[in-house]
């Protein structure tokens, strides 16, 4: 059923100037199918319509990939190693699964307090054979690992996001928060030791809505 959406996905990928191979498009389509299938049982997202899932979830997450890749390419990574990224409150794997499919050089760790959501991520990793995708059932505050990049999408206020994940941010690391409208009030509420160093507007193909990425670091 969702195969009919493939041309729209391919057009969106082209509009974002993402260089994805056919196998990555296949994986994104397969993820959409899994999301629809498991959503009936697990209630991973309130969006039920496949067309809306494509624009509001898949393309919305894809819009942030060029920004993420630009940053990752500036970081030192050992030959053959992957850069660890923590995606907080991934829910149904958005944007975590999309990042893992599009960025094989990034090791994506999706943490969620809801066990069935973490289990779904593990299922996706197995089904799509993504060795760089991991579902973690835990609270982000309880993690003992540190990450150079911590991302979230429509997860919590910037204050809560940075406060809860602070312990998991590696030295020199950045927070990558996907938001809707420019979050002026949330930014103003941030403590002095969290610095916003860039707000990047995103254009989501096929979606007429304001989106941005707020880049932050520990001051």
Residue-averaged pLDDT, rounded? Answer: 93
Strand order of the largest sheet: 3-2-1-4-5-7-6
* Topology order in helix (H) and strand (E) letters: HHHHEHEHEEHEHEE
Quickly give the structural class: alpha/beta
Total count of strands: 7
What general form does the structure show?
A: globular
Task: Outline the biggest β-sheet.
Answer: 7 strands, mixed
Euclidean distance between termini CA atoms: 48 Å
The number of helical runs is 8
Question: Mind explaining what this structure looks like?
Answer:
Helix content is 39%, strand content 24%. Strand 1, helix 5 and strand 2 form a beta-alpha-beta unit. The termini are far apart. Helix 2 (22-42) packs antiparallel against helix 6 (115-127). The protein is globular. It has a 7-stranded mixed beta sheet, with helices on both faces. The protein contains 8 helices and 7 strands. The chain has helices spanning 6-15, 22-42, 50-62, 65-72, 96-102, 115-127, 158-165, 184-188, and strands spanning 83-88, 106-112, 133-137, 147-153, 169-179, 194-202, 211-218. It has 219 residues and is an alpha/beta fold.
């Amino acid at each position: 059923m969702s195969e009919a959406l493939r041309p729209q996905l391919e057009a969106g990928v082209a509009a974002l100037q993402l260089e994805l191979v056919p196998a990555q498009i296949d994986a994104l389509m397969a993820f959409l199918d899994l999301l629809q299938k498991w959503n009936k049982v697990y209630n991973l997202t309130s969006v039920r319509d496949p067309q809306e899932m494509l624009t509001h979830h898949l393309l919305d997450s894809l819009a942030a990939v060029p920004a993420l890749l630009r940053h990752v390419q500036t970081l030192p990574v050992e030959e053959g190693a992957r850069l660890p990224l923590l995606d907080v409150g991934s829910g149904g794997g958005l944007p975590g699964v999309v990042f893992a499919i599009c960025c094989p050089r990034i090791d994506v760790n999706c943490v969620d307090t809801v066990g069935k959501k973490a289990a779904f991520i593990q299922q996706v990793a197995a089904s799509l054979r993504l060795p760089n995708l991991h579902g973690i059932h835990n609270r982000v505050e309880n993690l003992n690992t540190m990450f150079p990049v911590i991302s979230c999408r429509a997860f919590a206020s910037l204050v809560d996001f940075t406060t809860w994940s602070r312990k998991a941010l590696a030295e020199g690391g950045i927070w990558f928060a996907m938001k809707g409208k420019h979050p002026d009030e949330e930014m103003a509420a941030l403590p002095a030791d969290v610095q916003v160093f860039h707000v990047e507007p995103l254009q989501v193909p096929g979606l007429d809505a304001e989106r941005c990425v707020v880049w932050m670091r520990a001051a």
